[in-house]
Amino acid sequence: MMHTQRYWSFAAVVVFLCWSLGSSSPLPSSGRLPDLSYVAETGNYTCDELIRWLGTEKHYSNEKKQVIFGLVKEADCTKKPSLIAEAVKFGAAQGKRSFFVDDISNLRAGRLSSGSSDATIGSGKRKGRGKAKSSDASVVAAALKEKKCSQQDDFVVAYLSNYSINNNFSHFLHGLLRLFCALLDARVLVWQEQPVQRFVQTRNYTIWLDEYFKLSPEKEQWLRSFGGQLRSLKSFPPPGDCVSSQTLLYGSGCVRLLPPEKWFGYPGCRAGSILTAFGTYMRQYHLAATADSLRFIDNLDTPLTQRSSSNIRSNANDLTGSGLRIAFAVRDISTTKTGLRHISNLAQVQTLLTHTQHITSSMENVTFEHLDIPSTIRYMAATHIFVSVHGAGMTNMFFMNPGAAVVEIIPYPLCQCKSPDYFYGVGGYYHGSAVAQGLKHYTYCVPASEVTWHQIPKDLANGQTPGKCSWKHLHAVESVHVDPAKFVSLMRKVERDLVVSGTVVLTKPIININPHVNG
Questions:
Q1: Least confident residue range of 175-179, 306-310, 413-417
Q2: What DSSP state is assigned to residue 423?
Q3: Between 484-501 and 346-355, two packed helices, what is the crossing angle to 10 degrees?
Q4: How far apart are CA 319 and CA 316, in angstroms?
Q5: pLDDT at residue 376 above 70?
Q6: pLDDT, tens digit, 9 for 90 and up, residues 336-351
Q7: In the chain, N or C terminus with fewer CB closer than 10 Å?
Q8: How many other β-carbons are positioned within 10 Å of the β-carbon of residue 24?
Q9: Which of 29-33, 66-70, 246-250, 403-407 shows the lowest per-residue confidence on average (mean pLDDT)?
């Protein structure tokens, strides 16, 4: 669906008038991007410091990272911001599959290769998961020691998975963000200013996907965006064989990139620079709109009848005449196994928005399950205001351009969560994501009386107050009812902020009023 209207309203706020008449056009003339050469880490880290940072990424890896950490020599960590090990192999023997090295001398933690550690490796299943001890490395190493592997890769990036990465889009995308960060820090991807501002790949490499990784065609397309070859370790090598690497980079994390709930207000966190670089890279790779193309002049002298036909765009990047592009996320009922989390009165809300709009705009419903990856990135890059009920699909905001806005509809009881140390809540996960990448973030909290449950959580039965927020609360939501008047008021604030920031330039006041008149 799409609506395009402009209405004149005395509800317009004076800030629209003052800013619009008193400012020169903020539209940039150069069209240059910010210099992103500073994003790659330059600090000097010891092995212990690197492992301390990388070992805390529990949502985006598995315990097999402990095996990799144990294969690193102290000399490999000296004055490097990345965790790199030399001559690492991956083999299968005696029912075990593991990373290992032939030469265990000078390892930081030879005990991991000698079998004294009891660290376990999750198979990626939440319940009844199989476990493999890090002593698997010693079993495989003993069976395949000095064996010439049938396959050899030069520079390898080890990418680990877990249940969340395999089954939750948001966690998978956060895993990609960490992979991108690791490639930057290792200078596999480098930003160049001349002759064209863009990221360039400095060397060929292969991503080793651990044996638990569920590689779908969509995930393969995401991973190939970074230019490397892919090798799944699920079925290869066969028993009694191995694959070797000259150099192995740990790709499931990077230093000073904290968990997303800590992306706002934590000194030293690199989220702002990494998210900016990641969004820029993906928009360039998929030929998406830039921040400059989002800025537009709302020519209030042009009749609507002369502009309406240009508002139906043939592609996601075409913003000609569209004004503000407002996208409402709508989930595909055929793909969800939990509550649908839809806005029960969405049509009513959109109708009121249409009839009270101050600025030329178009409204659309978007279902990400119906878009391929390039279309998703191009669509989000060309969106000014993204509206969604809290959920994994909101992570697509990573591809929005700086200066755009996100409106997060948060069902009860998630608005009661404290910020910023909790995953959910007004100032939590998506607030940190938005602020870190230069997006404006707004929240609309849905009270308990306006939530319809797919299956009411046990701790909310009989009107109880939940002890803490949980994903179970979110997954139990079937629908939310949004107060149209309150939501329109929030959207008016979003519009005003976009005018003040220069994303929208008005050619004259929306209402005619003498600024010297009292009242």
A1: 306-310
A2: S
A3: 50
A4: 8
A5: yes
A6: 666 688 999 999 999 9
A7: C
A8: 6
A9: 29-33
Position 37, amino acid:
S
Q: Tell me: cis bond preceding 413? Omega within 30 of 0 counts.
A: yes
In this structure, how many other beta carbons lie within 10 angstroms of the beta carbon of residue 453? Answer: 15
What is the SS3 assignment for 346-387?
A: HHHHHHHHHHCCCCCEEEEEECHHHCCHHHHHHHHHCCCEEE
131 contact partners, CB below 8 Å, separation of at least 6: 120, 121, 122, 123
Contact predicate 273/181, CB 8 Å: no
5-19: b (≥16 Cβ within 10 Å) or e: bbeeeeebeeebbeb
Chain centroid to CA 284: how far? 16
- Rounded to whole angstroms, the Cα distance separating 45 from 347 reads 54
Lowest mean pLDDT among 95-109, 223-237, 375-389, 468-482: 95-109
* H or E element in which residue 186 lies: none
- Residue 339: enclosing H or E segment and its boundaries? none
Least Cα distance to 385 among 250, 497, 471 occurs for: 497
| pLDDT score, position 347 | 96
CA 47 to chain centre: 28
Q: CB under 8 Å to 325, separation ≥6 — which residues?
A: 319, 361, 362, 364, 382, 383, 384, 385
Radius of gyration of the chain (CA): 26
* Angle of the 271-285 helix axis to the 429-436 helix axis, nearest 10: 70
The number of CA neighbours under 13 Å toward the Cβ of 268 is 5
Q: What contacts 195, CB < 8 A, 6 or more positions away?
A: none
CA separation (Å) from 39 to 207, 254, 259? Answer: 22, 12, 18
First to last CA, the chain: 40
Closest CA to 100 of 46, 147, 149, 136: 136
